[in-house]
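Running this now, will post back.
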Amino acid sequence: MYKRILMTALVAASLAVAGCGKSGSEGAASGGDNAPVRISVGSYNLNNLPFFIADSKGYFKEVGLDVKTENFAQGGSKVLQALVANSTDVAVGFYDHTIQMQAKQKDVVAFVLLSRNSGLVMAGRDNATFDPARPETIKGQKVGITAPGSSSDFFVRHFLAQHDIPVDSISLIGVGSGAAAVAALEQGKIDLLVNYDPAATLITERKVGKIIIDARSDEGARQVYGGLYPTSVMYANQSFLEQRPDAAEKIARAEQKALKFIADNSAEDIVAALPDSYVSGDRATYARAVENARAIFTTDGHFTPADLETPLKVLREFNKDVANHDIDLSKTYTNAFVERASASTPAAQN
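Update: finished.
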């Protein structure tokens, strides 16, 4: 409790100081924290699209922040490891990792919500023998996930736990995301693939296979998880948020710009704003993937507390650390920085 009070006091004090002497639309977020921030992202999946847009459109620079980015392209668990090891300052990863870290007594806090829903699908080739109506048919299958410890891993473990199927009855194989993951399915290296767009759209567009379970829509997520499953967030160690609250607010402002750009523009224009390094497959197919995933994005980065109960419930099914600890969800996220960013944004930009 003391640490939470201290963090709130430090944030308020720093932001109050930063508010003095502001001028101009971007000056409202510029403050005095101009040191570079290292931001790492785990994969090219579309849940992370608002970060890609903020990076490629130069929004971090616009709000006065010098950002050094790194894409691990190996799943969110690798980025989490980097954050805990202090080899990066901010991670673009999935919210459920903050719950895992609290169970390990590590203060990792999400401060911008990019994707309000899962976006995950389970796909197989056209001759797939797995039928979700007969859960036992998953036994013996090689199931591709982005990486061990990722939310795609949790998706599979949740399905198994729901149907009392032992984890060792299947093989979980890390295959990354995007085109590489689709290739693993197409080449028969795996029987099933749990992944996000653009992989989901690439599978159907290239006629590689079919979608078997679809959690991209709100209805689909409720069928799979029993509720919405918030995913992509900006998160950091609590110490970073305490020491550099002005930088955290700038990140929130940049992401709000990106979320507004996504909401206001066509899928084609969104894809046109991205460099080739962020696009999997051809741009026309990627644009269709963006359109398919559009519903998962937030409008302003705010967290809805009730939705955070869903990943906690899922993790408790198979994660002993989470199941055996009293998790306080209020310590896993904060809306303080998106609220400050919203308040400092000129009405003309809202």
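Residues 148 and 329 are 24 Å apart (CA to CA). More later if anyone needs it.
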